[in-house]
Amino acid sequence: MDHKCWERPEDMDTPRNVYKVSAQNPGSDVAAETAAALAASSIVFRDSDPTYSSKLLQAAIKVFNFADRYRGSYSDSLGSVVCPFYCSYSGYHDELLWGASWIYKASGTSSYMQYIRSNGHTLGADDDGFSFSWDDKRPGTKILLSKEFLEKNSEDFQLYKAHSDNYICSLMSGTPGFQAQYTRGGLLFKGSESNLQYVTSTSFLLLTYAKYLSANGGVVRCGSSTVTGENLVKLAKTQVDYILGNNPTKMSYMVGFGERYPKHIHHRGSSLPSIRDRTQHISCNEGFQYLYAGSPNPNVLVGAIVGGPDSNDNFSDDRNNYQQSEPATYINAPFVGAVAYFSAKPPTHG
């Protein structure tokens, strides 16, 4: 229903149906992802609010048990509702391993290490996943578990270090295993729709892995080539800088940042007149005139990162071209991690 209307949030009058996964209609992918989020959050609050942290971890365990016991994909249970936009294309195995890994990291409970050891091979530990996204958690899980190998030299996690290295080698030009595509301007290019989601998530993983390697004196082996944590930071920085304006068109892809940024973004609230400027109700169909209008968005969605340029570094600042001009939480979220890393590091010359 959302896609059939162009409305302000204040005017929204379409059905807002809520769906749930259950034992009869399982959704291991969405449940295990929820468990991962709860477990990760419990780590964040561990020192500042131990009671809340413990509550989050217990909830994570409960939700994970549900995900694992009633296995199935939410796409199969709710196909017509979530597809084709948000089908679980990668299935639910990657989320089960991701959820268990985060609970193990948050709790240190050996049964979760045992779960990873026993189920890893059937849940994707042997696959090389080359794109970390809202749907596919494989590279993120490999890097998370490689930390265990780097810190404890545990053979159980050696496989994850090897696959993490394969992922890194796929991104590093000039090394055996390199298979990524970069634009002439230096941007990682994975897909024509919302490509920056892959750029921000890859940058986040590069920096996370660089941190793990540097803390433990580790390196990445790509055949006869050696890649250091510093190499990973350097690559991530080129991607972050590209997004913020260091690119052939000198366009910042973060709205409201820099001298030149997208003005016609595919976003309802940003493109429609505010409730202050036009108090009358704007109906579902009436709003489309603003989608197709040539004028800039009246409300600047500060901080939003859009889908980004094409494979030739060209960007069409066109509201109707959602592939390039639509912002999304899954583009912004990993970027926060990347800029947090750089903002915390003292600036270096060069």
Automatic annotation (TrEMBL):
Residues 2-339 form the Glycoside hydrolase family domain. It is an enzyme of class 3 (hydrolase). GO terms for biological process: cellulose catabolic process. Keywords: Carbohydrate metabolism, Cellulose degradation, Glycosidase, Hydrolase, Polysaccharide degradation. InterPro entries: 6-hairpin_glycosidase_sf (IPR008928), 6hp_glycosidase-like_sf (IPR012341), Glyco_hydro_9 (IPR001701), Glyco_hydro_9_Asp/Glu_AS (IPR033126), Glyco_hydro_9_His_AS (IPR018221). Its EC number is 3.2.1.4. Gene3D superfamilies: 1.50.10.10. The active site is at H266, D317, E326. It comes from the Eukaryota. One of its GO terms (molecular function) is cellulase activity. PROSITE patterns: GH9_2, GH9_3. It catalyses: Endohydrolysis of (1->4)-beta-D-glucosidic linkages in cellulose, lichenin and cereal beta-D-glucans. Belongs to the glycosyl hydrolase 9 (cellulase E) family. This is Endoglucanase.
